[in-house]
């Protein structure tokens, strides 16, 4: 006899399936509770900073401080030393090129000048006397030669007239030969006198040339001493603003001592110091910007000083356009020195979040503005205002850029407006 077997309502397979499903529900519920609980943080809206993700021109620049200086500064140094005899102007005043600032007195220089002047005067007198004597000798020698020529002609004439008498035996041979010897003597005397005159002339001309060379050297020395005396007048090489002059009447000034300086106030430049790390990237022509009187202005590097001191090197910048009104000497400007041309990039403003995240993640604000969630990102270059975003964000999104202190394990920020 067959027995009817009753079907069980909860077979093992069914129980196992339901048990597994229930376990999954419990796990999901636990994860949801954990995600929405332990990794969520309520923050007040006024305590965080939210910024937009923008797309625009990214400029690689560094911030530097620059000091406004006159476009040209000329130092005043005493070329010659001396005692201050007169002070013509005071420091802090405007002066014109060529104005006398100080007059110095130097007794030794004055005596040396007078000695040179006396020597030059003596040389001039000696030269004039020598030239006069040369002319006198020339005239005297001409007279001697003229007299000898006359005597020679007379002697020649006597020989000619007595030659016929000698042939006719009307005069003695001794008398005739005496006439010839006298003629020869006069000719020889003339030759000797001419040679002596030439030697005298050479000597006198040589003496004159030597005196002329000595006089020229003496006059150069005199002019040099005259210029040195002129250097005792300290004059303005340019027009501008004279700095303070501390020297007073009666005070001694040493050669090379700095007296002051003159600033050309017709223009300004900016002197800046830059970290030596950037020395290979900085060259004349680079531009920088700074904010002043509510507007942005431009500067351009004109000179780079290669010397490195205390880890920094110097550059000079000028205003390519007109100097902004209100700029004053000694003023400090915060300059953004551009190291590259603008390039299009996605950017977020700099903020305290970077210290914790290193630019690897950030909180992105939901469009509702009620919360922000953590998202991985990748950043690239950075300047003093922006981080370049390479991946993870889109233009128009908003991110939390304030400090992330205590946010290390937080996945979601609930933003409370009140």
Multimeric state of these chains?
Answer: single chain
CATH class of the largest domain: Mainly Alpha
- The shape, in one word, is rod-shaped
Report the mean per-residue pLDDT as an integer: 83
Structure explained in plain terms:
The chain has 418 residues and is of the alpha+beta class. The protein folds into three domains: 38-58 and 344-416, Beta Barrel (conserved putative lor/sdh protein from methanococcus maripaludis s2 fold); 61-70 and 263-341, Elongation Factor Tu (Ef-tu), domain 3 (Beta Barrel); 108-231, Helix Hairpins (Orthogonal Bundle). 36% of the residues lie in helices and 34% in strands. The chain is built from four helices and 22 strands. The protein has helices at residues 12-35, 107-167, 173-231, 353-357; strands spanning 40-44, 50-52, 54-58, 61-77, 82-87, 94-95, 100-105, 233-235, 240-242, 252-253, 258-275, 287-292, 295-309, 312-318, 332-338, 343-349, 361-365, 371-376, 378-382, 386-391, 398-400, 412-416. It has a six-stranded mixed β-sheet, with no helix packed on it. The chain has a six-stranded antiparallel β-barrel with strand order 4-11-14-13-12-15. Helix 2 (107-167) runs antiparallel to helix 3. The chain is rod-shaped and about 200 Å long.
